[in-house]
Amino acid sequence: MTIERLHVGKRLSQVAIHGDTVYTAGIVAGDPSEDAAGQTRQILASIDGFLAEAGTDKAKIVSCTIWLADIADYGAMNGVWDAWVPAGNSPPRACVEAKLAAPQYKVEIRVVAARR
Amino acid sequence: MTIERLHVGKRLSQVAIHGDTVYTAGIVAGDPSEDAAGQTRQILASIDGFLAEAGTDKAKIVSCTIWLADIADYGAMNGVWDAWVPAGNSPPRACVEAKLAAPQYKVEIRVVAARR
Amino acid sequence: MTIERLHVGKRLSQVAIHGDTVYTAGIVAGDPSEDAAGQTRQILASIDGFLAEAGTDKAKIVSCTIWLADIADYGAMNGVWDAWVPAGNSPPRACVEAKLAAPQYKVEIRVVAARR
Questions:
Q1: I need a labelling partner for B1 at 20 to 30 A (CA). Which of B11, B33, C74, C104 fits?
Q2: Domain around C28
Q3: CA distances for A110 relative to A40, A43, B52, C38, C95, angstroms
């Protein structure tokens, strides 16, 4: 099976593809001045883009981890998530609280997706 | 490879199966009035059920994440875990502290299992 | 597909191999008297060893989770990480804060790697 990497940085890559499985990094908002809902919106848009580049899409996510810097943002994050998640193809998900790499980040999301 | 989902909800599914790999959601106790040991017992029973529906079992778990709302419950959780985990087929595991979606939840467990 | 386990303990195994995918446990330092940089160095050496036993290496990591007991150690951990990660083959990574199983542990790292 092949291994392919997308957006390869010195420290980490945003995506790795192993055979038919696509792994993303923990994605944070490009503009962390927004609130939790806004950051979630940005992150899910980034994930849509990464999955498209990897040849797949949100209907093929098989695992998702969400970290919230403050679990009180659970409702705000879910408001955006629920509108984004494809009916009939919602993924298994875990959502827990954790301080993130920098205090301005309120949300971080990582997914594993099938390619086919 | 096929993708199959079990217990599909609007927000998340409890299980996704991609080829020979089974991913569960982060599972919490159905009755969170119980203590950490009791919640762990409920969760592991749920996982047994989900894995059976997916055509596999606890001897085929290849990765496990455990979140404890209070790491002081490490011993109580492990007492139940150690009795449940199959001799010779214990999975790689990570266990860390994290606040969970609601304060009554003391334990959340997610597994990845092989189907064959 | 075969399932193989390495360093099988009563509670957990350090590694599980399912087909071409290698899962490690959350690895902590053997000598937790060291600081975050020293613990990171020990952990990455352990991971190198486990991956070698599994027939792969750090250039084939496809997902990495790092938990820091204190996110203030982000820079110290990254100093060691950046020197270790193979140019052109950096993995997708998530790094968050979480209290670990015992207070002396400052860093815990888990990886998923491709075998080929």
A1: B11
A2: 3-114
A3: 12, 9, 27, 28, 11
pLDDT in tens, B17-42: 999 999 999 999 999 999 999 999 99
| Euclidean distance between CA atoms C5 and B53, whole angstroms | 24
Residues of C with CB under 8 A from a CB of A: 20-21, 60-64, 71, 74, 78, 81-82, 85, 87-98, 112, 114, 116
Count of structural domains, chain C: 1
The structure's pTM equals 0.98
Residues of chain A with pLDDT under 70: none
**Rounded CA separation C108/B55 (Å):** 32
In the chain, the amino acid numbered A61 is I
Provide, as residue numbers in chain C, all residues whose Cβ is less than 8 Å from the Cβ of B74: 101
Alpha-carbon distance C113 to C95, whole Å? 17
| Cα distance between residue A103 and residue C25, in whole Å | 28
| B60·C3 Cβ contact <8 A | yes
CATH number of the domain residue A109 falls in: 3.30.1330.40
Residue A94: exposure state from Cβ atoms within 10 A (0-12, 13-18, ≥19): buried
